[in-house]
Design goal:
Layout lengths: L8 H11 L3 H11 L4 E7 L9 E9 L1 H7 L8 E3 L9 H5 L5 E8 L5 E10 L3 E7 L15
Antiparallel strand pairs: 1-2, 1-6, 2-3, 4-5, 5-6
Helix pairs in contact: 1-2
């Protein structure tokens, strides 16, 4: 079902509402079962160091395709900082809005080739939910927009 949607947190939140799960659980399931290269990341709501772009990672779940291209989840550090995780610059904005913040990040794959990835960040008041994916053609897929 996830593959029928345009990739994004809107799809995750729509499926959470449809199946009666939390957004966090839906992000986990969405990332682990998606056929495309997607990663779901759960971060602490506040920075690990005041005034710095440093966040503690609680969870990372990768689709099989993402893992094959970028390496296993165990390779992700427990503390994410910018750089290289430049999307963290938008974490503050995500904490202060009810919507989804969209940005990009450049990360190397297992062959050390850099890829520009799409990123969406949202807050559930307890954690930051982050969805990262390799862009793909989205023609004919359902689009869900999260209104602030």
């Amino acid at each position: 079902m996830a593959h029928e949607y345009v990739i994004g947190l809107g799809a995750v939140f729509d499926m959470a509402a449809e199946f009666g799960s939390s957004r966090r659980a839906a992000l986990h399931r969405y990332a682990e079962t998606h056929r495309s290269a997607v990663a779901g990341v759960l971060l602490d709501h506040s920075p690990a160091q005041p005034g710095a772009l440093v966040y503690r990672r609680r969870e990372v779940v990768l689709s099989r395709t993402f893992e094959e291209q970028f390496g296993p989840a165990r390779c992700w550090p427990l503390i994410l900082q910018s750089p290289p995780y430049t999307f963290l610059a938008e974490a503050g904005n995500a904490r202060t809005t009810n919507g989804v913040i969209r940005t990009e990040v450049v990360l190397p794959d297992i062959n050390n080739a850099c890829h520009e990835l799409e990123v969406e960040i949202s807050s559930n008041s307890y954690n930051l939910l982050v969805l990262i994916w390799v862009p793909r053609r989205e023609h004919g897929r359902r689009r869900v927009v999260v209104a602030a």
